[in-house]
Amino acid sequence: MESKPLLRMANISKQFPGVRALDNVDFEVYPGEILGLVGENGAGKSTLIKILSGVYSRDAGTIWLDDTPIEPRSPQHTQELGISTIYQELALIPHLSVGENIFLNREPLRLPAMGMVDFRKMHREAERILHSLGTEVAGRTPVKNLTVAAQQMVEIAKAVSQKARIILMDEPTSALSSREVDALFGMMHQLKGQGIPVVFISHRLEEILEVVDRIIVMRDGHRVGTLSRDEATEEKIIRLMVGRKVGLFPKQDAEITEPVLEVRNLSSNNGVRNVSFTLHKGEIVGLAGLVGAGRTEVARAICGIDRVIGGEIRIDGKRVHIHSPADAVRHGIGWIPEDRKQHGLLLRMTVAQNTTMAILRRISNALALMNTKEEKALTTHYVNTLSIATPSVNQIVNNLSGGNQQKVVLAKWLSSNPKILIMDEPTRGIDVGAKAEFHALMSHLARQGLAILMISSEMPEIIGMSDRVIVLCQGRVTGEFKRDSMTQEAIMTCATQFVKLDAFADSITAS
Amino acid sequence: MNTPETTMLDSRQTAAQRGLTAWEWITNLLKSPVFIMFLVAIGLLAYGQSQNPNLMAEDNLKIMTRDTAILGIAAIGVGFVIITGGIDLSVGSMVGFGGVMVAYLMKEYGWSIWGSVIGTLVMGAFIGLIHGLFVTKLKMHGFLITLVTMGLARGFILVITESFPITGLTEEFKSIGQGYVYNLIPIPVIICLVIAVLALYLLRFTYIGRQIYAAGGNAEAARYSGVNVDRRIILAYIVSAVCAVVVGIIQAARMGLGHPGTGEGYELLAIAACVLGGYSLMGGEGTVPGVVVGALLIGILQNEMVILKVDPYYHKIIIYTVLLIAITIDYGRRRWRTLMIASVIDSLRQRRE
């Protein structure tokens, strides 16, 4: 630790359209340490790792490995340099054996001229490496027969066999039980003993605290703090993660009246468990939680995309059954999806065609003939009121900027005259100015009596825009806050609540 | 409803704008691949006429337009499926099925002409419905289920005809394929025009058509906007099968018999006409005028090769070479977006400004 860093990154910056993902970040890894990298969703952790592993190129900055500047070009290239990355989604070939996976493309040959593989040697070697890492797996086992945890071990073994000098792990524990996590940590210590540093990204703070030597905290593309093992506590990390700044969000008070949407004990086949909440007219309710907490899944269940397997949904006090998105539209529910290009827009169609997509039948007569005059008038109206920057209503949507595309999705739903609007990450990937404009629009709509359910990963947005916040964790509601009582720390604590509980349950079943 | 603010323009400005839009309309027309195809078709006719004046003689024009119309009907039908992003390989077999069934109903069951025609159409619609159900409910690719029908329908008509044509159809029925309106326009051309107008109305002017394009453009986004995507895809497969059966009926009437071999390979010709007409196999693109021009091009080419006495063994090579050239230009244009004509027009416009 006291020695000089094995890997150093200085002044790394990365710009995505509309977002500054990394801003002058420094980063260093010392030989033989386990380094934790933490931050909220979108803080820039994954971007940093992807730059280091050659998936993204950086806009500015320098990377040194052993005092030699390096230029990561591609994942293969960085692997040759000795930087191995293990992602959440494993990159193994399921039908091949453990040994074949570890030595893929570098198989030991028996008759090199014939290209004949020495399977015996390959499998023995694979078992030896896994043994040195503290795991016993037969080299001949097909990878698909292994648990996720064991597959991860195989990936790590593969990295070690490639003479990895640094191993990066992006949320390796998210799919593991607590016993498997312990085994993974044991392996990390083995690697540490061999002098190989491990960089470890995780949302689970107590895990991080259990294993790491040093923690780097990121927020909004900046490195906001470095804590050594001794001084780090969960509270300290959370405070650094969420920061102190709130503002920019012009949510005006709206008159909150009768309930519009009541969700009672809703469960879906896609991981929503027993979720209950109420949404009132004129209210913006924020749905907070970590990625994978089931926020989008709640929206999908309400919109009839996922199948509801329990509980009920009431609109205006009447119980409704929503089996398809068409039903949801009929009941006055609009959904602005997270991925507007995939789920929200017909990119090759025009602004007008997109705007009327949800109300086609309403603007058509009995002979199914569309009233194109009304279509044009309606679209022009929304282009003006939402100030969509487009040369004409016949512009192809693909040619608009992200913020304007998002407004077209909004126009589509507003024209359908909804009672409830669900917005999933409404301002993701649009630039700051357009963001503020969109927030002003949301607040204006709430004042007109629309009920808005807003899903967001950005804490300031949640705090700034919501009248009420509902926190989800692993598909369940773990907290609810009114405007006056919500703090980022409290929301974050609720969002990570079951992580601890699950570990507790696991330890009981284990003993 | 919401009324937008209308901006008043002073008259000169409006006139200038109108002039600009007229100019833009012409340039857009000149840039449009469909119009270029149309010009190619005209050019082809002119060339053929210069080589053999019989090409534009009344008798040959009747034959040419009738063949083109028959291909056009099949192509318009399969075009619906292609817009939804699917494909219908059963067109050829359904043509054979339609011809044999209509003859079979008349000869074996003694049904009237209209009874047989309507009965055959209903059977075609039913097969299309089944295609649609497989594609939407089982999420099977249209390629597979229509490939199965291609074999099954052909096999079925071989079984019921024992591979002998069904002959002895009435003159009245034959007039569907052989007759003329005012002794000039072949009846199949009239049928094709009626179908083209209906298809144009459906695709361009109704919400149903808009939803069919949406289903092909981005099915998920359409579904989440409340569009019943499944129903539109099923409709497309029904239209395709019904159009194929119509072609079969016309062919049976024209030949005066229900021949089990009719329509072999017709699906590829129909798909080729769509592609020539600017349809994208990815779905979401294609217009009725486009497919009509595509069918026209193939129809003229086929007829001209006969009139100019091109060795029949070369017919397929020539047709599909033309297709290859057309799609290569189309894809190349999409990639580089610089066609000679476009740059010529731009330079013209610059000069004008």
Which features characterize this protein?
heterodimer, A: 511 residues, alpha/beta, Rossmann fold, 3 domains, six-stranded mixed beta sheet, 22 strands, B: 353 residues, mainly alpha, ABC transporter involved in vitamin B12 uptake, BtuC, 2 domains, two-stranded antiparallel sheet, 15 helices, 1% strand, disordered N terminus
Query: Strands of the biggest beta sheet of chain B: in what spatial order?
Result: 1-2
Mean pLDDT of chain A: 84
Determine the strand fraction of chain A and express it as a percent band: 15-25%
CATH topology name of the largest domain in chain B: ABC transporter involved in vitamin B12 uptake, BtuC
Overall CATH architecture of the largest domain in chain A: 3-Layer(aba) Sandwich
The CATH C-level class name of the largest domain in chain A = Alpha Beta
Backbone structural class of chain A: alpha/beta
Which descriptor suits the 3D outline of chain A? elongated
CATH class of the largest domain in chain B: Mainly Alpha
Q: What's the helical proportion of residues of chain A?
A: 25-40%
- Give the helix tally of chain B: 15
Number of H- or I-type helical stretches of chain A: 18
User: What profile does the largest beta sheet of chain B have?
Assistant: 2 strands, antiparallel
Model description:
The complex is a heterodimer of chains A (511) and B (353). Chain A has 3 domains: 7-242, Rossmann fold (3-Layer(aba) Sandwich), CATH 3.40.50.300; 244-332 and 418-511, P-loop containing nucleotide triphosphate hydrolases (Rossmann fold), CATH 3.40.50; 342-416, no CATH class. Chain A is 35% helix and 25% strand. Chain A has helices spanning 45-52, 75-81, 98-102, 119-132, 148-161, 178-193, 205-211, 234-242, 295-302, 325-330, 340-344, 351-355, 372-385, 402-415, 432-447, 459-465, 488-495, 497-510; strands at 7-16, 19-29, 34-39, 60-65, 68-70, 83-86, 109-111, 116-117, 166-170, 198-201, 214-219, 222-228, 259-268, 275-280, 284-288, 308-315, 318-320, 333-336, 420-424, 451-455, 468-473, 476-482. The longest helix of chain A has 16 residues, at 178-193. Chain A starts with 6 loop residues before the first strand and ends with a helix. Chain B is mainly α. Chain B has a two-stranded antiparallel sheet with strand order 1-2. In chain B, β1 (180-181) and β2 form a beta hairpin. Chain B is globular, with a radius of gyration of 22 Å. The two termini of chain B are 41 Å apart. Mean pLDDT of chain B is 86; it is low at 1-17. The A-B interface holds A 303, 305, 324-326, 328-330, 335, 337, 342-349, 353, 357-358, 360-361, 363-364, 367-370, 374, 377-378, 380-381, 384, 412, 416 and B 1-5, 202, 205-208, 210-211, 213-214, 217-218, 220-228, 284-285.
